[in-house]
Specification:
The chain folds into two domains: about 10-70 and about 130-140, Roll (Chitinase A, domain 3); about 75-120, Thrombin, subunit H. It has one helix and nine strands. The chain is mainly β and about 140 residues long. The model has no long low-confidence stretch (mean pLDDT about 95).
Length: about 140
């Protein structure tokens, strides 16, 4: 049985849950996720959990918000006029839009509230400020 180590490319199945037990993502309805341990593509704690796992082994890890997608920053929430959107566009809470920040970089914002005159946008990652639990199963070391 292969044991995962730093630098290995691995395939894992995972389920991510919030503290209330709700699932925010899972790979069990698609192909396993493939990544190289140490490339920094994933949350560091997630990658580190896979190190030392044997093929077929499962582990559960809890990752604090600050070590996952960061804390929620109030300064990244803003209100814009409803007139900033096309009049025929139905804007609803939960929708995501691509926009540009002051230095021209593209960012994703999530609509969190809509009124007749205003739209509240949040540029935080949707999982910012949330502690996460991952159930990880090592499928293969490739």
């Amino acid at each position: 049985m292969a044991q995962a180590k730093h630098g290995d490319t691995v395939k894992v199945h995972y389920t991510g849950k919030l503290n209330d037990g709700s699932v925010f993502d899972t790979s069990h309805n698609r192909e396993p996720m493939q990544f190289t341990i140490g490339d920094g593509q994933l949350i560091p704690g997630f990658e580190q959990t896979v190190v030392g796992m044997n093929t077929g082994e499962s582990r559960i890890i809890n990752i604090q918000a600050k070590d996952a997608y960061g804390l929620h920053h109030k300064e990244m929430v803003g209100v814009v006029g409803r007139d900033q959107f096309p009049p025929d566009l139905e804007v609803k809470a939960g929708q995501q839009f691509e926009t540009r920040n002051e230095d021209g970089r593209t960012i994703i914002v999530t609509v969190t509230d809509v009124s007749v005159s205003d739209v509240t946008l949040d540029a935080n990652h949707p999982l910012a400020g949330k502690d996460l639990t991952f159930d990880i199963q090592l499928v293969a070391v490739v």
